[in-house]
Specification:
This protein is α+β, with helices and mostly antiparallel strands and 275 residues long. It is 23% helix and 27% strand. It is built from five helices and 14 strands. The strands form two sheets. Strands 5-7-6-1-2-3-4-8 form an eight-stranded mixed beta sheet, covered by helices on one side. It has a six-stranded mixed beta sheet with strand order 10-13-14-9-12-11. Helix 1 runs parallel beside helix 3 and helix 1 (2-19) packs antiparallel against helix 4 (153-170). The chain is globular.
């Protein structure tokens, strides 16, 4: 962590020199439990059914120094129906340095969108969104194909900043698996034309009394499947669902009467609520 902090401070100084800026004034950031400070999330591209819904941000940092990152995936095929989180903590002064660098490279004020700059347009590539909360307001910068070949300084600085955030995990040692208290559970009609072969998956009984067709709330179609629905489960509902969810794969079919659905799930982050 000390090495990374030194790298952040050094890079911050170089950024301010390159941009011709003086040292930034004091920046207020969230300091409480569950208050988001910095997040990086890459999404989009050509994805199998429900993959967009199950994906987690690459890193989320909160005011008390809690850092949440996706846990390694189980090495199975088809892949798991849901992703898990693992956690570690950073000190307040390191988080202050991270926020200072974010402000120095322009992650403050009006939101920004940085278009793709590579020599060839990548139609199915994802976009990286970086959120930084300072002075009571979130700033969002979204960059298409962030780590593709680029020439603009703002994209280069953003890519370097995101890379340093990824390095936080490298120096954190053993990470603790974060046990979820709330899950987003998604169900959708099987789409045999794309994604895992549903014939590879087991059929399991739906653990809820409500019919699949009316369970949860309708979500916008993901472009590949139809009738995507979502509900947050917690408490007794979570206890009832876990025996199914923890062993389900992306090809598992849940069955209720003559209805069949594929499913996905992911834990809610501390700053999230609902579907």
């Amino acid at each position: 962590m000390r090495t990374l902090r030194t790298a952040l401070v050094t890079s911050l100084s170089l950024v301010m020199v390159a941009c011709g800026d003086a040292a930034p004034t004091t920046v207020e950031r969230p300091t409480g439990v569950g208050e988001l400070v910095v997040r990086v999330h890459t999404a989009g591209g050509l994805l199998p059914p429900l993959e967009r819904e199950r994906q987690l941000p690459e890193i989320s940092i909160y005011g008390d120094g809690l850092v949440l990152v996706p846990a390694p995936l189980r090495d199975i095929f088809p892949g798991p129906a849901g992703y898990a989180l693992q956690s570690f903590r950073i000190e307040a002064d390191l988080l202050d340095d991270i926020v200072a660098e974010a402000v120095a490279i322009g992650l403050r004020g009006p939101d920004r969108y940085l278009e793709q700059e590579g020599p060839e347009f990548v139609a199915d590539a994802g976009a990286t969104t970086v959120t930084v909360v300072t002075d009571g307001s979130p700033h969002v910068t979204t960059a298409d194909v962030l780590f593709d070949e680029t020439t603009s300084q703002e994209r280069q600085l953003l890519a370097e900043f995101v890379s340093k955030l990824h390095e936080l995990q490298t120096g954190a040692g053993d990470l603790a698996i974060s046990k979820p208290s709330r899950l987003r559970v998604y169900i959708a009609a099987p789409d045999p034309g794309f994604g895992p072969d549903v014939e590879l998956g087991d059929e399991v009984a739906w653990p809820f009394a409500e019919p699949l067709a009316s369970w949860g709330e309708p979500m916008p179609p993901d472009g590949l499947s139809v009738d995507v629905r979502c509900r947050v489960v917690e408490g007794d509902e979570l206890d009832a669902a876990l025996p199914v969810l923890q062993f389900a794969t992306s090809a598992t079919i849940v069955v209720s009467g003559d209805e069949r659905r594929i499913l996905a799930h992911r834990p809610l982050l501390p700053d999230e609520d609902g579907c």
